[in-house]
């Protein structure tokens, strides 16, 4: 038999397992294999390789899944918003802001009383009133940003 | 001469976990975005054999494979929101693992897995050292005396990887291309050459 035919058969055998064959090529290959013992051996060798590759068994390290699950859960806890405190920080900030809104009339009266009784300049009182509103959220934002930076640094290290 | 018992097709193997088909990638993506710990537990259980085997044969180092296995799942937790559900989960998982192997090889200069990226370079393949191979052999089941598994260790890692992804993990050509971030034509070329290299290694081993 022509050597080119064997070479084509070998190429088609490889192609059949890598990317599949057209119906015409598959028919040609089957007919060739029916008449060629050396290519049948080649086909058997290919199938032997594939069979072994599909069943490459490996012994897993002891408790690998359990240890990984534990590590993943720990990391999830460490990096969750509730665990790193930002959830409660946001909650306290929101409560503080609401308190500020509802206590504003009282605070304004308090500042007015200070101005009337101690002669504090109006500009100083207005500045104090602005600080009363802005310091808590600015402080909270600074803490959150600092925490995020620490978390990112910790993640990069690990 | 009689017609040989010869099949040309690969039967797909469906995988199940806790009632959710792995094909349900949208449900998976949602769970990963929510960092669902129970989902992650199930995924770790389901993919432990495949992922560890992939890492073990890629690195040739059981201890490193174990570290990278755990690191891969940490990445899955932290980057779960990046999985969009449009591709198979295992493709995404293996891509993460592969990147970690490459990072580790850059750090530790192991038997250069950087060569995974360029099999056509003129750099000769440096097989794993004897000690690493023997440790690996202990972990590989000896049920197949023909030791195809051991022959796998004799071929370059860029062929070993693509053969494992195609025939052990049943990934399609496009999925392998996504895992390796290489064109499909490169994947095909490595598969052809890898099969030939493995057959030669088996023949040499049997001789």
Biggest beta sheet attributes of chain B:
2 strands, antiparallel
- Run of helices and strands of chain A: HHHHHH
Helix content of chain A: over 70%
Helix content of chain B: 55-70%
Radius of gyration of chain A: 38 Å
* N-to-C series of helices and strands of chain B: EEHHHHHHHHH
Chain pair with largest interface: A-B, 47 and 54 residues
Strand content of chain A: under 5%
| CATH architectural label of chain B | Orthogonal Bundle
Please name the defining characteristics of this protein.
heterodimer; A: 158 residues; mainly alpha; 2 domains; 84% helix; rod-shaped; B: 207 residues; Rna Polymerase Sigma Factor, Chain: A; two-stranded antiparallel ribbon; 9 helices; 62% helix; globular; disordered N terminus
Please provide a written account of the structure:
The complex is a heterodimer of chains A (158) and B (207). Chain A is an all-alpha fold and 158 residues long. Chain A has two domains: 52 residues, no CATH class; 80 residues, no CATH class. With 207 residues, chain B is mostly helical. Chain B has one domain: Rna Polymerase Sigma Factor, Chain: A (Orthogonal Bundle), CATH 1.10.1740. A two-stranded antiparallel sheet of chain B has the order 1-2. In chain B, a hairpin with a 2-residue loop joins strand 1 and strand 2. The chains are: A mainly alpha (158), B mainly alpha (207). At the A-B interface, helix 1, helix 2, helix 3 and helix 4 of A face helix 2, helix 3, helix 6, helix 7 and helix 9 of B.
Task: Show the helix and strand layout.
The complex is a heterodimer of chains A (158) and B (207).
Chain A: H1 3-18, H2 23-35, H3 37-54, H4 64-79, H5 86-118, H6 122-157
Helix pairs in contact in A: 1-2, 1-3, 2-3, 5-6
Chain B: E1 16-17, E2 20-21, H1 25-33, H2 37-59, H3 62-78, H4 89-108, H5 130-139, H6 148-154, H7 157-168, H8 173-180, H9 184-206
Antiparallel strand pairs in B: 1-2
Helix pairs in contact in B: 2-3, 2-4, 2-7, 3-4, 4-8, 6-9, 7-9, 8-9
């Amino acid at each position: 038999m022509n050597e080119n035919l064997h070479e084509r058969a070998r190429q088609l055998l490889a192609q059949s397992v890598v990317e599949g064959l057209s119906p015409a090529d598959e028919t040609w290959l089957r007919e060739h294999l029916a008449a060629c013992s050396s290519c049948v051996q080649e086909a058997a060798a290919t199938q032997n390789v594939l069979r072994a590759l599909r069943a490459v068994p490996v012994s897993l390290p002891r408790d690998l899944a359990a240890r990984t699950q534990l590590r993943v859960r720990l990391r999830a806890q460490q990096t969750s918003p509730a665990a790193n405190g930002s959830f409660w920080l946001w909650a306290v900030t929101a409560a503080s802001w609401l308190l500020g809104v509802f206590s504003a009339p009282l605070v304004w009266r308090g500042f007015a009383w200070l101005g009337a009784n101690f002669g504090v300049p109006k500009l100083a009182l207005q500045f104090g009133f602005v600080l009363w509103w802005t310091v808590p959220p600015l402080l909270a934002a600074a803490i959150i940003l600092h925490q995020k930076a620490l978390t990112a640094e910790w993640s990069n290290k690990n | 001469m009689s017609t040989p018992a010869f099949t040309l097709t690969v039967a797909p193997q469906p995988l199940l976990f806790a009632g959710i088909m792995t094909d349900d990638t949208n449900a998976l993506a949602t769970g990963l975005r929510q960092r669902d710990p129970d989902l992650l537990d199930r995924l770790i259980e389901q993919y432990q054999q495949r992922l560890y085997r992939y890492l073990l044969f890629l690195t040739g180092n059981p201890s490193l494979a174990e570290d990278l296995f755990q690191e891969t799942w940490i990445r899955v937790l932290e980057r779960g929101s990046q999985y969009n559900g449009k591709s198979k989960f295992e493709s995404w998982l293996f891509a993460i693992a592969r990147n970690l192997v490459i990072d580790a090889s850059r750090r530790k200069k192991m038997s250069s897995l950087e060569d995974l990226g360029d099999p056509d370079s003129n750099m000769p393949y440096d097989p794993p050292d004897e000690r690493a191979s023997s440790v690996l052999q202990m972990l590989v089941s000896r049920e197949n005396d023909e030791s195809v598994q051991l022959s796998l260790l004799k071929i370059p890692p860029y062929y070993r990887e693509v053969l494992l992804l195609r025939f052990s993990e049943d990934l399609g050509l496009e999925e392998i291309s996504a895992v390796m971030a290489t064109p499909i034509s490169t994947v095909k070329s490595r598969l052809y050459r890898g099969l030939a290299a493995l057959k030669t290694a088996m023949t040499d081993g049997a001789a």
